[in-house]
Amino acid sequence: MSGGWNTIESDAGVFTYLVEELGVKDVQFEEMISLDADMLKQQAPIYGVIFLFKYPTNEPRSNEPRDGSFDHAAAENLFFANQVIQNACATQAILGVLLNRKDILIGGPLEEFKEFTQAFPAELRGEALSNSELIRTVHNSFSRSSPFIDENTRVATEEDDVYHFIAYTSINNTLYEIDGLQPAPISHGACTDDEFADKIIPVLQNRISRYPAHEIRFNLLAMVRDLRLRAQEFGDSEALTAEERKRQEWEYENELRRHNFVGFAHQLLKEVIRKKLKDGTYEDWIKDAQDKSKKRIDERMKGKGGDAMDIEY
Q1: Is Coiled coil a UniProt keyword of this protein (predicted)?
Q2: Catalytic residue among 139, 164, 188, 191
């Protein structure tokens, strides 16, 4: 295997263009800002959801999941791959939905990968996924560029917050949780596509309820049919325009993610400092910046009752 896997953001635009780069047709992601079944139904048809959460690294291992039950037979009959490499969980969760849905046009490359790994056990499927040049290259193309940290050289410690992506989808009228860190898919009971929105919300709420009340770092993305198609079918030009504008914004943001601007910012700052020194205004410029910073901090502390721990820098 050559090359590593970088972390990518839980972002609707990132995930939408990622699946398109893999050859998938007519699929997009929508961020869900609340756990509301009616809001989720508005995005129908829903192929599944991708859930990001803080992984409980100190939780003891168990022979059974805390919710649902392992379906070891499904691990052989569905596409289920163990996660064998760090940072691949986002794409692996996405594939856990894509490769198990018959109503998605996944395209030639993923069809070939699915057929190639069909007879593999879960661990070998994970190895095949991590060694896929196409999947790894597309995944890494959506990682943020950074000149400071090599994701492959830093080992996480117990003090680090570790986040993990998993998928939920209805397969063969059963609600499955697809998590590559588990030994098998987790069944949460009978669930048709029409029932998915109503049945997934309690599962997620139950999972979140085990975290402290102050823990809010969760993210939920719904994998849905391209909303532009629905707008076209209903002749809703306003909705179509809004969706096209959203795509343009996503494309712009993804281009920014592929570049780091540290070198540019450094050079710009050097030029500004050179000009200030030449004009003799450098000291005044620094003092003015310090005064403005102090004023912002004072205003923020006043607004938060003087609690300096709440200040964000």
Answers
A1: no
A2: 164
